[in-house]
Amino acid sequence: MSTLDATRAELALVVLYLNKAEARDKICRAIQYGSKFLSNGAPGTAQNVDKSTSLARKVFRLFKFVNDLHALISPTAPGTPFPLVLLGKSKNALLSTFLFLDQIVWLGRTGIYKNKERAELIGRISLFCWLGSSVCTTLVELGELGRLSASMKKLERELKDSDKYQNQFYREKLKKSNERTLALVKAGMDIVVAVGLLQLAPKKVTPRVTGAFGFVSSLISCYQSCFHPHQSPRLH
After folding, report:
1. What's the rounded mean pLDDT across residues 74-102?
2. How far apart are CA 100 and CA 11, in angstroms?
3. Which sign does the torsion angle of CA 66, 68, 73, 75 carry?
4. Residues 9, 12, 16, CA angle at the centre, nearest 5°?
């Protein structure tokens, strides 16, 4: 076994262990953004819930950067076009960086890391990494949906004299298409959430808009976790 294979195997075990906190993180995320929607940035109980839940989620995500580090060095599916491979690996690299830097943000908010200004700068950099990963995810899903659409049309031509919905391969492709469409919607919403957290368009993407998009994105994530456990979307 090569060194790379051994590293993959070791990281896979760590990923399996860390994924136990995934469901809790998704529930907390829904609470966090639901509270942000209710508070609309105004001081009060809802804003306190938003901030405290955000801090709690950072504990759930400790060392979670290993997940995407493992995905980064893992081989891709055979036949995947190079542009999609490049986008997928970029997403993994950006998301792993975001999760790693987010640990420093947690250390800063708990007072362990004393340099407050640097912690805030690192937090902003981490959010840009998450924004970049969400953009990459959106492009990957668009590309994969295009590939699926082409293969489904080809299969439809082959099955023109029969009911395509009775064909197992067509049903599987249709299911994958629906899953990727949902993932595309979620990734698009996460872009809006990242823009809101970074305050890149404060007049249009208000805390209420950020909370609404984040809450819906969290519900989609919970649905994917329940019905498509092989998908493991990681959200801020």
Report:
1. 95
2. 15
3. positive
4. 145
Strands (E) across the chain are located at none
pLDDT reading at 63 higher than 90: no
* Listed residue (177, 165, 190) closest to 95, CA to CA: 190
* Nearest-5° Cα angle at 146, 212 to 169: 105
List Cβ neighbours of 2 (8 Å cut-off, separation of 6 or more).
none
Query: Which of 137, 149, 121, 226 is CA-nearest to residue 183?
Result: 137
Q: By percentage, how much of the chain surpasses pLDDT 70?
A: 93
Radius of gyration of the chain (CA): 20
Per the document, the length of the chain is: 236
* pTM for the full predicted model: 0.87
The answer to whether the beta carbons of residues 7 and 73 sit under 8 Å apart is: yes
Please report, for residues 28, 74, 85, 98, 177, the alpha-carbon distance to residue 136 in angstroms, rounded to integers and kept in the order given. 25, 18, 11, 14, 18
* 64-75 pLDDT per residue, tens: 899 899 999 999
Tokens read off for 147: 């590939």
Nearest CA among 126, 131, 123 for reference residue 192: 131
